[in-house]
């Protein structure tokens, strides 16, 4: 476990999955969900080299068929600390014999956490160390404690989006995959979305086509942002496990999404796939802001 701190935040990160474990403010208040198998045991896994699920758990590339579990393998692997300072840490993961059996590409994935005042900057860097083009998806899955909601109570809350007009969503619950259909996000008014347990009866709320760039979780007592997630990703998922009254909400910037229902095409042609030529790199960042 590595600890980062400045005058406003203290953050802990695990070598396993390079996963955020804790985000506390200067008064010791915890903002990150602490994991509980009764609801969801993880806290902030990194999704790589796929986001969400494959049709029947398989995909086709380079003339062969492979199997890979939901969200890929990075979240369950030990990363190595490359650099460390009081307010930042960089982790790195490279291909192994085990990864090559389910993902036949060589890569180096680095993840940096950097504190800037009351913000956590999460920086992804994917480098193609192979001799051929590689294809990948990457995403975040941080879970935040819902302000004003106690364990066992019905969940409810309000999000503020950086967009005030109509927002369209897609569903990812067609045997774990998506379709081309899009639907207006119900209950969204002027950029505010009041949600409750029933808002997630169809699984994650998935918003693609770069419709959003920032989502705030509002404190019900003050109507001010408790947590803000900013991103440039083409897709974002909003999720809490339906039917459990789990007192947390995930806001998940994604460079990728589920397979389409009954998808039998090539891995490289999946919706929201990223491609790198040999020696090339992909970099992106999302930001978690605590308070205002």
Main attributes of the structure:
single chain, 292 residues, mainly beta, Beta-galactosidase, Chain A, domain 5, 10-stranded antiparallel sheet, 6-stranded antiparallel sheet, Gal_mutarotase_sf_dom
> How many strands in all?
25
Strand order of the largest sheet: 7-8-9-10-25-21-20-14-18-17
Please tell me the CATH architecture by its name.
Distorted Sandwich
Specify the structural class. mainly beta
In CATH terms, what is the fold-level topology? Answer: Beta-galactosidase, Chain A, domain 5
What is the terminal separation in angstroms?
28 Å
Offer a quick outline of the entry.
With 292 residues, the protein is mainly β. Helices cover 2% and strands 43% of the residues. The protein is built from one helix and 25 strands.
What does it look like?
The chain contains one helix and 25 strands. It is mostly beta strands and 292 residues long. The protein has one domain: Beta-galactosidase, Chain A, domain 5. The strands form six sheets. A ten-stranded antiparallel beta sheet has the order 7-8-9-10-25-21-20-14-18-17, with no helix packed on it. Strands 4, 12, 13, 19, 22 and 23 form a six-stranded antiparallel beta sheet that branches. A three-stranded antiparallel beta sheet has the order 1-2-3, with no helix packed on it. β9 (107-116) and β10 form a beta hairpin.
């Amino acid at each position: 476990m590595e600890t980062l701190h400045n005058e406003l935040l203290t953050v802990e990160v695990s070598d396993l999955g390079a996963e955020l474990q804790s985000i506390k403010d200067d008064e010791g208040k915890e903002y990150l969900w602490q994991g509980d198998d009764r609801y969801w045991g993880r806290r902030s896994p990194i999704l790589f080299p796929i986001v969400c699920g494959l049709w029947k758990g398989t995909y086709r590339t380079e003339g062969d068929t492979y199997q890979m579990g939901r969200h890929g393998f990075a979240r369950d692997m030990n990363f190595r600390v490359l650099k460390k300072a009081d307010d930042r840490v960089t982790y790195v993961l490279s291909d192994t014999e085990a990864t090559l059996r389910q993902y036949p590409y060589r890569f180096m994935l680095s993840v940096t956490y950097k504190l800037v005042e009351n913000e956590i900057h999460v920086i992804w860097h994917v480098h193609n160390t192979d001799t051929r083009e590689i294809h990948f998806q990457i995403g975040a899955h941080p879970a935040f404690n819902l302000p004003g909601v106690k364990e066992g109570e019905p969940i409810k809350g309000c999000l503020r989006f950086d967009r005030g007009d109509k927002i369209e969503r897609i569903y990812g619950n067609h045997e774990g995959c998506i379709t081309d259909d899009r639907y207006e996000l119900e209950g969204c008014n002027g950029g505010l979305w009041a949600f409750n347990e029933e808002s997630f009866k169809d699984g994650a709320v998935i918003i693609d086509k770069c419709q959003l760039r920032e989502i705030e979780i509002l404190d019900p007592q003050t109507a001010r942002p408790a947590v803000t997630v900013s991103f440039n990703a083409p897709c974002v998922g909003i999720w809490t496990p339906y039917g459990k009254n789990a007192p947390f909400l995930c806001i998940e910037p994604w460079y990728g999404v589920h397979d389409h229902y009954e998808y039998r095409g090539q891995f490289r042609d999946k919706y929201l796939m990223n491609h790198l030529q040999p020696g090339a790199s992909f970099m992106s960042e999302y930001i978690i802001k605590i308070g205002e």
